[in-house]
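Journal club side-thread
Mid-discussion, someone asked how the predicted structure for our own chain would compare to the paper's figures. Pasting it here so we can look after the session.
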Amino acid sequence: DGDKWEDRWVHSTFKGAEAGKFKLTAGKFYGDAEKDKGIQTSTDARFYHASAKFESFSNEGKTLVLQFTVKHEQSIDCGGGYIKLFPKDTDQKKLHGDSLYYVMFGPDICGPATKKVHVIFGYKGKNLLTKKDIRCKDDEFSHLYTLIVNPDNTYEVKIDNEKVESGSLEDDWDFLAPKKINDPEAKKPSDWDFLAPKKINDPEAKKPSDWDDRKKIDDPEDSKPEDWEKPEHIPDPDAEKPEDWDDEVDGEWEPPMIDNPEYKGEWKPKQIDNPAYKGEWVHPQIDNPDYEADDNLYRYTDVGAVGFDLWQVKSGTIFDNILVTDDADYAKKVGEETWGATKDAEKKMKSDQDEQEKKEREAAEAEKKAKEEEEKKDDGEEEDEEEGASDEKDADADDETDEKEAEDEATPDEQAKDEL
């Protein structure tokens, strides 16, 4: 709907002069000039805060799906590409990085080390990051990102309509206190290492008296061979006493020592499995009295806005096809009809552009090389002409010198004759 997007989206003024503006464009390459238009970050090293409100809803008892496309056509080096869901009472004009949000989802890239998909949930005043590492796409093309949160407290992350991660909200985020904790009655000794362990042993648990923690024991049937005892070093059998050696002056001569080729080292019986071994003894933990199950980890009661809260060093990212729904199948269909319908044509246009740029670059390089060779040829001709002129000048000078020398060698009678 063209420029009407600006009637729905509100830019925050919170960052003042540091704030960048989104603009509507399909970018430098696309599959469809109209269908692929999205909002693009337009200025380098800027904050981008913009949001759009809709009729608020609760996802209680329903699936929540957040889906959108991201195209980093600028080959982004550092910057966010994620989207957020906000509560209905969000002040859009004052939207900023610390504004309350429910869900943050999408790619984040900064250098070669950070290339991940953020999935962050707001819960009881805290923003919880996923424990899993989800890799994002880092090329220049459009990609479809989908987050599905189910009412059974499970989730799924998809990229380009393919599942890349899934699991349990409770397992993969720290929504709740741990089910097990260390016994609060146990106290750390005053001489304990300053690095406290992550877990403590149950002080009421005792190691059984018959517990054997030796995984290997000496073989009772193994014995040391009779020829085992050999010295580590022996006198060199090839050494000879020097002829000038004086025992009275130098002392008794002893040959130097060398490594004993028969030395076998300290004998140890071979190891066998310990029949009494029960494995490493682990102290049991106790139940955490503060743990409370929550069947509504997935639930938000007043979702009312979607928006962006970004910082980009290098601008040019295009966002499009934003969808918030309660139907995962519908989201998949929309993804196929939007991103799926134009992605191949987008790649072809980029490939054609790259090929054309390559031809133009090669033509420019060939033209530059030809020009350099022509200039080199002209310079060579000028040098030849200068050398020719110099040779003629040198020849004339040689003739004048020869004539002068001839005059100097003439007899007095010849000189007088010439003068007459």
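Post-session note: Confidence is low (pLDDT under 50) at residues 192-198, 415-420.
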